[in-house]
Structures
1.
Amino acid sequence: MSLTGDGKEAVFNRFYFADCEKALDEITSGEPGRVYKEQDIDSRLEQILCYYDNACARGLLTVLLDRKEPADALMFHTSREFIAENRAEIKDIIEQHYSSITDIYRYYDFGDNIEMKNAVKVIAALESNTLQNVTHGELIRLLDRQYRIKRPIANFVRATLGGALGKEVDVNEQNLRFMTRVAYELWNGGDPKAVPQKIDEYEKIHNFTLIDMWGTGVIKRALAKATTIRMNVAVSGESFVWAFDKPHSVEEKRFATADKSGAKALEQLMRTTVQRLTVSQSRWIAIDMADVIADNAKYNGEGFTVDKQYANSDLSVILGKAGQPFTLDAQKDKERILAACDKLSQFVKQKYGSNIILCKVSLNDKVRDYDGKIKPLVTDKKKFANAKALLKLCEERFVENTDCYILDNSKNYVSDENFASGGAGIARFEADFYSATAEYVDYIVQYSPVQKYFDKL
């Protein structure tokens, strides 16, 4: 029996004991003696099938799978259903010790398993950055299967179209098939100058309403699920508290970091967000104010919003003590926060009139665990109380200042350990919340109803 570092007995899952049982069977049946170090393939595949969806939800799939191993990379880019359907073939591939996914495609005998062969071909192309070498039909078949490779394909398409147009292109769930076809035409010698017209015609046919957003993943994830709108200017990771400050001179060289921390901070300190929204063609904007509870930092007294990775970032090291992260205080910073909220209110009223949607964020102190049970969400009580006070202060002032639509349905949902981007959190909700919010947004944008307040499930 193995012991942990604190002297306690180690706890193993059922797959460990299945391995031990198989090894004991071999030993007692007179098999030649050997050291049992590697996990049995069948046992490992059982383990992967058991934990795959859970690991995906928690952002921990790279803990379960080693992407350097070709068979693991294949499983990483597909789905639990794919692994279950092709379990025998995957076991065979593991046993044959291929050196790359490309080698799997070239040398493995797929027989009549065309679906698996197509998946391997597209994944091999993605891994070698040659996605343009597969056919349009092969790409679409993989997109229709809802595999995990869908997101990197979208990123590849987005990069292609962005490079052709010289600006960011919105590639989302609704338009991915169309955008993939446009990108495929470019890969095969199509005229980049024809792309803007094709996109405009597509949007006219599908009658999307352009909408801007300012907020966090709360509203961003909801908008991504809406079917009648298309996000135009998206402001995320930047609190309105600093956005209306005047820009000051910045020593840009200090922000040339190897990671993204410098670029993110510099973009905020240039104070260009309001201008980006001003020139937007959108008639609508959707807002959540949860960035007010995020961490912040300062450069020469000028504030900017940072994420949880900032403390270990290159910029944090460069700025030192003067750039240490901090959170706003609902009492001490009240005057500044309300002044910024008034400026935000005035700006959006002037720009969007009454076409403003506020998604209120009801912070969570409860979480649904992996077994579906509701339990307390462990938080720092003082910080939680301050965060609630900050949001209440901002949301009430914004509603008072504007004739906005109010989505107050987040109070009906708890946090969820199966949250797709890294587990539970005080401003993260069950998946149904984002779908329900998307339906509200679609309804409001389509009909501009008289009703302004929405809070039902």
Note: Residues 23 and 29 are 10 Å apart (CA to CA).
2.
Amino acid sequence: MKKTFLLIVLSLAGALTAARAQSYDADRDDMYRDIRRMANKGFTNIGLSGQTLSVVTPVVGRLELELNSVADWGVSVSRSRTFAVHRNPLARMIYLGIDATWVDVNYAQYGDDIDVLGINVSKLTGGTKLHHLDVSLLGFGPSVHVFPVGKLGLHAYVKYLPTVSTVFTAEDDFQGSIGYASIFTLGTAVSWGVISAGFEGRFGGGRYNRNIGDYAPVKGNLSTAGARLYVSLRY
């Protein structure tokens, strides 16, 4: 009788342990699935941009004409997606990923602070504004995503953005310069559910080598650097 009772107790204990283990595995799988879902998301960034632009134009021999300008204001919008590179999170909360940027558009306007050969020529241009538009397609780079609690997410990334860069004037008639630029971004963001806010540095260089219109406002090697503050919708 005692042996039968002992076998019954052991059987019940084993069944209870197995049920608890199964429940734990199910809860863990659900947690991993939720974290993976939060990591593997597309997101749209809308932000404010501050930046500088420098263009060095060869004149004669080694003589160069350098234009430097600080943007009066700027805006940006981009659409990207994160792809996690492993199935289960590291330490139950960390995902490594690849960020793919389908399109990134950055616009800045110059006019109040344009410097040529160390001389501020803003007043000499008659109020003419210089417009700077960068359109980046199919950018990519590594990213790290940490989800310490609930819907809170911490994100860090580096991206390379192949870019078509243009500088143009549009007061009297449209005249512009166009060329290719390699742009890099380095940033971090904090998210809660579908909403996030972030900060990133943006820098790179290239060359304006083609005209849009009768003449080019600038021509030569370009470099740009700045920062962007943005808010995001992650879905």
Note: The CA atoms of residues 188 and 230 lie 11 Å apart.
3.
Amino acid sequence: MLGLLALKGFKMANFAKISLSLTACYGDAVIGMLAAVSHYFSAHLDGKALSSLISSLALLAFQTLALLALSAYVEAKYGQHQPTNPAAKWLLLIVLCCWHLGTWLFTYTVWAGLFALPLHFSGLAPLGGQLLLLSWVVLALTPWIGKTQ
């Protein structure tokens, strides 16, 4: 995947804009689902199902804020000029990709199980969670990789 992104013409700012747009959709989903939980699902789901839904919404809300912050940071830092630390740039790109993928895997899998949506593979939720955990570790290491300024 990163090989495709390394093709000539790839701009980090464009990726950051796509990431910000997707993140706005996640924020919209959080608001909509929270309204649905308080007005509908709290009366129609049992305790375990409601707990799963609220937990997945909490993860989605937290990751939405994290994605918003990191996408804005990447766009501001790498939007107009060449980075002085290309390794950090690519690690941040990997973190953004893993956050998006991990968020989708975890949240969709939980919701697909609750609402009998198509393509429900229960083993993907733990994979999404592990991907999120690993990408947070990569983010923590990013400032220590490559050249210092």
Note: The longest helix spans residues 12-44.
